[in-house]
Amino acid sequence: MGIYLDACALSRLTDDPSQMRVRLEAEAMEHFFGHIRAGKVVWVASSILETELRKNPDAQRWQDALAMLRQAAEMYFPDSRMAERGRLLHALGYGEFDALHLAMAERSKADQLLTTDDQFLRQARRKLGNPSVRVVNPLDYMQEVMP
């Protein structure tokens, strides 16, 4: 199973765990990385994710996230079809990076895209742009894959 992460999901591991939701989502991401190490899932990523991570003003956080990004099994780079799809999704209301992540997840043929961004989740659930990739919160993903 191919899984694509956006920057929100990947960065959840370094967010302040004082809120219960953040702590639970971080635990779900730790389980996700355990599944990667066990060979149960394939993490597909893109250069778009790297670009977004570098925008974090906290240098230590983006460096930590980039170190985690090295665990991705497959790395995809934008092409003209993906860029056009990203522009279309952005025009439909997705945030700029959300649109690009969704387009890259589709291009990579990922089964799911994990995000902790509630607005992104709502837009994808409304099927804006008819996404071919299922967009889910890490907690929902873990509930589905855990026995």
Distance between the termini: 17 Å
Biggest sheet strand order reads 3-2-1-4-5
Tell me the fraction of residues in β-strands, as a range: 5-15%
Could you say which overall geometry the principal axes of the C-alpha atoms support? globular
Q: How many helix segments?
A: 8
CA radius of gyration: 14 Å
Q: What are its keywords?
A:
147 residues, alpha/beta, Rossmann fold, 5-stranded parallel β-sheet, 5 strands, globular
Describe the structure in brief:
The chain has 147 residues and is an alpha/beta fold.
Secondary-structure blueprint:
Layout: E1 2-5, H1 7-11, H2 20-37, E2 42-46, H3 47-53, H4 59-69, E3 74-76, H5 80-91, H6 96-107, E4 112-114, H7 118-125, E5 134-136, H8 138-145
Parallel strand pairs: 1-2, 1-4, 2-3, 4-5
